[in-house]
Design a protein that fits this description.
By secondary structure, this protein is mainly alpha-helical. Helix content is 82%, strand content 0%.
């Protein structure tokens, strides 16, 4: 860890907070991926339709969105620590509801509050790591690498425990999240109310660069949320993979994302324009995903899926770190950016769900190529922008 602290130039007094922040974001990653991995099992237990499953994924993203905005402004009322602890507790509550009932209304509430918890942690952890590492691209890639660690662990839990144990997998993840919340509650995270002058007067709304970053992330999340939410379902129902192999591949996808983010964390400090690596990853994402969807042969699908995971790795954190440091250090500006981007994660999983009902899962997942194409254009524009 000392080498990481040195790389990020973290002060001694901030080291414990950084470790706790990385851990709770790891727990958030575990929850994020596990939802998609156990959704087919929930469907069997609760008899959920395609439309309702897509709606639940969109509701979770809507909760994510609302919390990102709330976590941007509530610190001025409650303080950053109280806000984080309060809203992230929604993940624990959501898990309890998911394993307890198939009631549609309560499932909607469960996915909503779990999404609110994830959105809160997305906002707070990005701001904290930006502050303690000096808006370092390496810092944000390391943060999102911790998310990837949790994301690849949780599907293995679902595979190991089997379809009868999906509730146990969720409860174990909820226990880790509760530990993370306790660690944050006892950390040096600011507890007093934040001063409005710190983020309230940052002129981000009229900045073209801010909105370019925001919409790159918007279209990226269209693709990521849809792929992560529906991938296991597609592989199982198309017969490309068995249930256990499809969940295992979801974990391997996140291993590739983890490796890619660690590589990006090492490379970005050495690059004059960090968007160069985003251009490469964005184009590779589109190409690898298209190849994966074009075949049902495992010797083609598996390498293409792993390349897809690798290419997804650094797009979000590196693009976010390329934003003006005044904006990345403001909970309001960060909240507006991530919150607006999260609309993509709300929109496209629903598009996939409704398309699947009429045209099948393969055609539905192919629609992801549209936001990927738009993202590629915006990434190139950001790279060329002076």
């Amino acid at each position: 860890m000392n080498r990481i602290f040195s790389l990020l130039k973290v002060k001694d007094e901030d080291r414990s907070l950084l470790v706790r922040t990385l851990f709770i974001f790891l727990c958030s990653g575990a929850m994020s991926t596990l939802t998609g991995a156990v959704l087919p099992d929930m469907q069997q237990s609760y008899a959920l339709s395609y439309e309702f499953r897509g709606f639940l994924l969109s509701v979770q993203q809507a909760g994510n969105l609302s919390a990102v905005f709330l976590a941007g402004f509530l610190p001025y009322i409650l303080g950053r620590k109280r806000c984080t602890v309060l809203l992230s507790s929604g993940i624990v509550l959501g898990i309890i509801l998911m394993v307890s009932t198939g009631n549609p209304l309560l499932l909607v509430i469960a996915f909503l509050v779990s999404g609110m918890g994830r959105g809160t942690l997305s906002n707070t952890t990005n701001v904290v790591v930006t502050e303690v590492s000096g808006n370092s691209g390496a810092g944000l890639n390391l943060l999102h690498a911790s998310f990837a660690v949790g994301a690849f662990i949780s599907p293995f839990l679902a595979v190991y425990l089997g379809s009868a144990g999906w509730r146990t997998a969720l409860l174990l993840t909820g226990g880790l999240m509760l530990l993370g919340i306790i660690l944050i509650a006892t950390s040096t995270l600011k507890n007093g109310r934040e001063e409005r002058t710190k983020g309230g007067k940052v002129p981000f709304m009229k900045d073209a660069g801010f909105w370019l970053v925001t919409f790159i992330l918007f279209f990226y999340l269209c693709a990521e949320a849809s792929l992560m939410g529906w991938m296991v379902t597609y592989f199982q129902e198309s017969g490309v993979m068995s249930a256990s192999l499809s969940k295992t591949m979801q974990s391997l996808l996140w291993i590739m994302i983890l490796l890619g983010r660690l590589l990006c964390a090492m490379l970005t400090p050495r690059m004059e324009n960090r968007m160069t690596i985003v251009v490469f990853l964005s184009l590779l994402f589109t190409a690898a995903f298209a190849v994966m969807m074009s075949s049902v042969k495992l010797f083609i699908v598996i390498p293409a899926l792993l390349l897809t995971g690798f290419s997804m790795s650094g797009i979000y954190p590196t693009t976010l770190s390329s934003m003006d440091s005044r904006f990345n250090g403001s909970t309001v500006a960060t909240g507006v950016c991530i919150g607006t981007a999260t609309l993509g994660g709300i929109l496209w999983p629903n598009v996939v769900g409704f398309t699947a009902s009429g045209h099948g899962m393969k055609t539905a997942l192919m629609t992801i190529l549209l936001p990927l194409a738009v993202m590629d254009v915006l990434v190139l524009a950001k790279r060329l922008k002076k």
